[in-house]
Amino acid sequence: MTLLQLLRLDRIGPFLTHIYRYFIFLGNVFVALSRPPYYFKEIKEQMFQTGNRSLSIICLTGLFTGMVLAFQSGMEMSRFGAKAYIGAVVALSLVRELGPVLTALVVTGRVGAGITAELGSMAVTDQIDAMRAMATDPYKKLAMTRILALIFMLPILVAIADVVGLMGGMIIATTNLNVGFELYRSMIIEALLVEDLVSGITKPVVFAFLIGTIGCYLGMNTTGGTKGVGSATTQSVVLSSICIFIFDFILTKLFFLFGRPV
């Protein structure tokens, strides 16, 4: 094994090329967004695919996340006589971090991978080139509609996951930890501030943009037939998940600097 292979320097060039092409892709999407037509029917259909068909798994994720969080935290806090604050712990953990991040990861696996596979199949079968031949902008028809649908729907899915998670935490708090419903509810109201809600809504918007743009970029640039579609789909999930974690940290630091620590 050579030193070049050991340091993986041979992969820097292709990586920088992908970064460059990704920003060119973003430029084309923003240009498409700035002029009509806007394909509202297609956006509505993508919103249904993204939101309604993800609702069941999002609710399950939120419910059991809230239940596990309440149970684990409550058992430890009861050792110090602080289990009355379990509502605040569950609420802040879900709204600030777990709700946006876990929901985005679930949507990445379900919606992001689907976008890449769908557009990748169209790319390798020359359907995207056929759209260009018919004077239809694929960035507007395919990419913009899916990105906007994700941006609209992911904050709603996160809000639903947060509410269901709080309900799951309430079930555990009242049945296993002997914390009354009124105490649990009052601690949630007392703990959550406007800054927490802003953080919980801003993060899914950024995550949705990352999931949509990465999925569409990889899908529309897929080559290599069916094998290439599978590889692009895997890359979409991996890269989107990595970017979610990275930008979650960045946004958390920004909210810590400009608002309440999150």
Helix/strand class: mainly alpha
Provide the number of structural domains: 1
List the helices and strands in order.
Answer: HHHHHHHHHH
Global morphology: elongated
Q: How large is the count of helical segments? A: 10
Q: Can you put this structure into words, describing what you see?
A:
- This protein has 262 residues and is mostly helical.
- It has one domain (25-258).
- The chain has 10 helices and no strands.
- Helix 4 (55-78) packs antiparallel against helix 5.
- The longest helix is centred in the middle third of the chain and has 39 residues, at 86-124.
- It is elongated, with a radius of gyration of 21 Å.
- It starts with a helix and ends with a helix.
- Mean pLDDT is 86; it is low at 1-7.
Compact summary:
This protein is mainly alpha-helical. It contains ten helices and no strands.
Helix and strand topology:
Elements: H1 3-7, H2 12-33, H3 40-51, H4 55-78, H5 86-124, H6 127-133, H7 138-175, H8 181-191, H9 194-220, H10 225-258
Give the key terms.
mainly alpha, 10 helices, disordered N terminus, elongated, 262 residues
